[in-house]
């Protein structure tokens, strides 16, 4: 029986395009995730969007809403009662 030693390849010095985008692009949350974090219903988020309240959102398509993680955090910080 022969045992083969696995060949180790040097890690590429260049980052892949996906890795670069992940470091640059903000994390996008679905409405269901934001609703869970804020402990409200998705319907409440929809109502807030129509009224212009709530965290800033991105409409990628007619029925595709996303929230930047930073915008949700900022919204929460603005809502802190003093």
What does the secondary structure layout of this molecule look like, with pairings?
Elements: H1 17-24, E1 28-30, H2 31-38, H3 42-51, E2 58-61, E3 64-68, H4 69-78
Question: What are the salient characteristics of this protein?
Answer:
about 80 residues; 3 strands; about 45% helix
If you had to describe this structure to a student in words, what would you say it looks like?
By secondary structure, the protein is α+β, with helices and mostly antiparallel strands. The protein has a domain at 27-78. The protein is 44% helix and 15% strand. The protein has four helices and three strands. The chain has helices at 17-24, 31-38, 42-51, 69-78; strands spanning 28-30, 58-61, 64-68. It has a three-stranded antiparallel sheet. Strand 2 (58-61) and strand 3 (64-68) form a beta hairpin. The longest helix has 10 residues, at 42-51. The protein starts with 16 loop residues before the first helix and ends with a helix. The relative contact order is 0.15.
């Amino acid at each position: 029986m022969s045992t083969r030693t696995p060949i180790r390849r040097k890690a590429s010095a260049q980052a892949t395009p996906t890795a670069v985008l992940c470091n640059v692009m903000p994390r996008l949350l679905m409405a269901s995730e934001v609703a869970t974090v804020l402990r409200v219903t998705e319907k409440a988020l929809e109502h807030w969007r129509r009224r212009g309240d709530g965290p800033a959102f991105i409409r990628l398509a007619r029925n595709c809403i996303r929230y930047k993680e930073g915008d949700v955090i900022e919204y929460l910080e603005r809502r802190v009662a003093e």
